Amino acid sequence: MTHKNPAPMAVTRLVFSAATRLVNSRGYGLVDKWRHEVLASLLPRRCQFCGSHSADQAICTACAAELPWNYSACPRCARPQNHRGVCADCLAHPPAFGAAWAPFQLQAPVQQRIHAIKYRADFGSARLLARLMARAAPRPLPAQAVLIPVPLHRRRLWQRGYNQSLELARELHRELKLPLQPGWARRLRTTADQIGMDAAARRRNLRNAFAVDARVAGRCVILLDDVMTTGATLHELARACRRAGASEVWAWALARVA
Ligand SMILES: [Zn+2]
Ligand SMILES: [Zn+2]
């Protein structure tokens, strides 16, 4: 049987394609989120670490307790230590940020998860670890606080396709209702790979590598990186924030190298 009047079909197709275009152009994030939530509600909840059933969490309480939490650390640089107070290095060479905090030490299994986030786009791990980070975050946060992830140079961003620190920052923004301004910091030049460099060489390597928007003036800036090794990157970015007029700068990282 042929359609005597093809007009209604054509109109339906037109409306459908226009609606799809509208959703794709304007509401993609929403559709994506909705699809993620529907899938999550259909799949049985399992702990991402041991595979056991877990009521409503992606990690069971036993595995969460086993993670390498950075309980005792220098308040200025977040380096693990077994005494209270600012460490000798920070007293001798104070970093440009006023406080630092990292909930984890860079050890298994957090280390492997961070590697997967950085090199295999494992955004599930990014969401999980950032959610744990948000729950442990120091409170209250200053009213004027703004979250800025450490930016990648545009060439590195183009190679990798995403900035792992921004992926973590999105989750912290959602969980902590913390204003997120990834566009307020830019990396002006690519820097040499820092593996094997000591703290002084890292600082030299990063000199004037960042530009920060003047809108940070008078605000408490919380910088976010995935890993804090010596703190050189966060120190240099904090210096740029200070130059731009930030009243306070804190450095946050998911994990700290001991
Ligand atoms: Zn578990
Ligand atoms: Zn310190």
From TrEMBL:
* Designated name of the protein: ComF family protein
InterPro entries associated with the record: ComF/GntX_DNA_util-trans, DZR_2, PRTase-like, PRTase_dom
Domain Phosphoribosyltransferase intervals: 165-251
Checking SUPFAM superfamilies in the record gives: PRTase-like
Family label = Belongs to the ComF/GntX family.
Q: Which residues form the Double zinc ribbon domain?
A: 39-91
Q: Which Gene3D superfamilies does this entry report, sorted A to Z?
A: 3.40.50.2020
